[in-house]
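Predict structure. Chain length: 111.
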Amino acid sequence: MTDLLQVLLDMRSGQVATDCNLKFNEVLKSVLDTGGKGELTIKLFIKPSKMAMGGAVIEVETEHECKMKKPELAVGRSFFFVTKDGDLHRGDPDQMAMNDMQPEGKEAARG
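Prediction complete.
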């Protein structure tokens, strides 16, 4: 019986195993950094490449696909107030600023 791990190490002189290992560690780091869920999908494609008389397979060709999905940090949301004209503002345009407010009678005392 053929050992799958050895085949991975033999494919493209070890580059397949190296590629999958690097991507695994990228996903793992993202999972540890974000606390989110990651995914690594390894697909191996095996097809006959040489046939003997009578149809027996005497050589196979292998290819791989190694795809990762890394979790990302959540990006915060932003809220904006909408003016009557449809413009967006961070501050409420209908709210009077604190420094514009004065208690009654203060204006007369200054004047």
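Summary: The helical segments are 4-10, 15-34, 106-110.
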